[in-house]
Every structure is written in structure tokens, then in C-alpha cells.
Amino acid sequence: MGKAKKAKTAKDKSGRTAGAKAGRASAAANTAAASRNAGAEATAPPKKIENKRYEKELFRLQVELVTMVEWIKHQGLKVVVIFEGRDAAGKGGVIKRITQHLSPRICRVVALPAPTEREQTQWYFQRYVSHLPAAGEMTLFDRSWYNRAGVERVMGFCTDEEYREFLRTCPEFERMLVRSGIKVIKYWFSVSDEEQEKRFQSRLTLKHKRWKLSPMDLESRRRWADYSRAKDEMFAHTDIKQAPWYVVDADVKKHARLNCISHLLSLFPYEDLTPESIELPQRTDAGAYVRPPISDQTFVPPAYPGE
After folding, report:
1. pTM above the 0.85 mark?
2. DSSP-derived 3-state class of residue 207
3. Any residues with CB less than 8 A from the CB of 191 and at least 6 apart, and which?
4. Has residue 303 been placed in a domain?
5. Does residue 293 form part of some domain?
6. What is the DSSP string of 29-72?
7. Is residue 163 part of a domain?
8. Considering only 214-218, 246-250, 265-269, which range has the smallest mean pLDDT?
């Protein structure tokens, strides 16, 4: 082979090699870019549900809740639902939507204040036991006996011995409730640090929310990591088969409400017991009854008189 031909062949090989390297580099760059984009999509906040669709779905689920609770009453079931989670995670908002159309005689909300001096000397679970449901009832605990594993642990309101005893006793206490026929459902509302901060700032600026920001809330904000560690240890000891923890992503309040209610409904094989339509009976003849004069009654002053 002549010198000129050899030089041309070497040049071609060199060009192909350089082109292949450039191609591989370009493909690697594209792959890396695609990976970054995929990661960005994975961590991007979810698109919020439109208000109109949210209201429609919420009302549909609330109608199902009415059906479910009537079935619970008919079956004589005893149901406990526990709501725990970070401050400003939206637990109260979910509870409010659950109970909005339910009878308070069947579905009761329990939100206990700090224990009294007398209650502090009782068996820890004692003040909660009196609020457990009877047959045909559902009790919603807006915070519960898990205060000991959270705020009491982090803020030093209980001793190490009391805390350890709680972690040992709580699973057995809940298993005992389940064996007695009580269905125990536990929800943990998880909210990111950034979203909690945003909600705290909102409470500072809106008068109707300012009352929600207590000194304890401010301290919990400061001790974020301590609460995280306490929650992890609580889960490690109390996430039991008979009463598991269900975590609700609460960064978007509307999504959290719909997801939590939908999940709660899915835990019961309820049936529609709505009675068949009836006709209202005619009123009996009033006879000689005469209403007393309006002037004899004390009416609420018309601050908003009809137009």
C-alpha cells in the first residue's frame, strides 16, 4: 500500500474514531439531561386539583361517608380513627370535612386539652378510655395517646421511663382494643418543612388563623429534627399489623382531604341502607289551637333584615 493511501486510511480511521467519541459524548450528555429532566419531573409539585372538581369529589365522598356511618350504626361496629402529624399539617381540616354531614350522636370528635393534675396521676391511657366508642359509634381523635411519643417526649413533659413504658404498652393496648371488637385506624399527616413554614407564616398574617399559632407550635417549629426522630421511633414500635399507620401526604390540603376520606371509606365493606322514599303524612287538624301573640315573644334583633 502506498504512503498516500496509508495516510488516507489512518486519517479515515482517526475521523471515524473521533466521530464515534463525539457521538458517545453527545449521547451521554443527552442521557444525563434526560435523567435530570426526569428527576425534575419526579420532584416537581403535583398539579393542584381544580376547585370545581374538588368540591364535586368532596361532596360525593361525604355522601358516601353518610352511607358508611349509617351502616356502622346498623352493624353495631365500634370505630376509632386517630389523626396525628405535624403542626399545621391539616388534620383539623380533614376532620371538619369528614364530620360536616354526619350525626354528632354517631360520629364524635375528641380533642383533649392538657391533662389536669389529677389526670397526671392516673394510668396514662385512662382519660382516653372514657371516650372510646360504644356499639354503632365512630370516634375521631384529634391527637390521641400518641402525645406521649411526640410532644411530651420532645418537650420533656414525661420522663424517659414513662416514654419507654409507653412504647412497650401502646402496641398491647391497641391489640387489646382490637380484640375487644374496636377497629383502630391511625393516620399520620406528613408535611414538608417548606410547606409547614408557609402555613405558619399564613397564620401570622391572617387574623382568623392567628389563634392557631401557640407557643407550643413555635417551639415545635424550632425542634423539627427532634420531632422527626420521635416520629421515626414511634413508628418503629407502634406500626403493628392489627393497627398500622397510614401516612397521608398533606403538602396539598385538598388532595390530603380527598385521599384520606377515600381511604377511610375503602376500609369498610359498607352497604347502602338508605330507606326507600316515603310520603310525609298530613298534619292533624289544629282544632281550637291559637298561637300566642308575636308581641309576647322575644325575637333576635334583625341585624340583617330581609331586602
Report:
1. no
2. helix
3. 85, 86, 88, 89, 90, 199, 250, 251
4. no
5. no
6. HHHHHHHHHHHHHHHSPPPPPPHHHHHHHHHHHHHHHHHHHHHH
7. yes
8. 214-218
pLDDT in tens, 147-173: 999 999 999 999 999 999 999 999 999
221: which strand partners? Answer: none
* Burial of 110 per CB tally in 10 Å (0-12, 13-18, 19+): middle
The Cα 153–Cα 170 span in angstroms is 15
Radius of gyration of the CA atoms of the chain, in A: 30
At residue 190, φ and ψ (nearest 5 deg) are -100, 130
Q: In what order do the strands lie in the sheet with 107-110?
A: 107-110, 137-142, 78-85, 182-190, 245-249
What phi and psi values does residue 141 have, to the nearest 5 degrees?
-95, 110
Any domain includes 286: no
Give start and end residues of each alpha helix (H) in the chain: 3-43, 51-75, 91-99, 117-120, 126-129, 151-155, 160-179, 193-205, 207-210, 215-222, 224-238, 253-266
Cell numbers for 88: 399545621
The CATH number for 251's domain is 3.40.50.300
pLDDT of residue 241 exceeding 70, the answer is yes
Over residues 279-307, the pLDDT tens digits come to 888 888 878 888 889 889 998 988 988 76
Q: What local confidence, expressed as pLDDT, does residue 211 receive?
A: 67
Separation of alpha carbons 108 and 180, rounded Å: 20
pLDDT in tens, 55-95: 999 999 999 999 999 999 999 999 999 999 988 889 999 99
Count structural domains, the chain: 1
Domain span holding position 211: 55-266
pLDDT of residue 260: 98
Separation in Å, CA 302 to CA 291, 292, 296, 306: 22, 21, 17, 8
The answer to whether 254 and 54 are in contact (CB under 8 A) is: yes
Q: How far is Cα 173 from Cα 243, in angstroms, rounded to an integer?
A: 11
Q: How many CA atoms lie within 13 A of 235 on its CB side?
A: 15
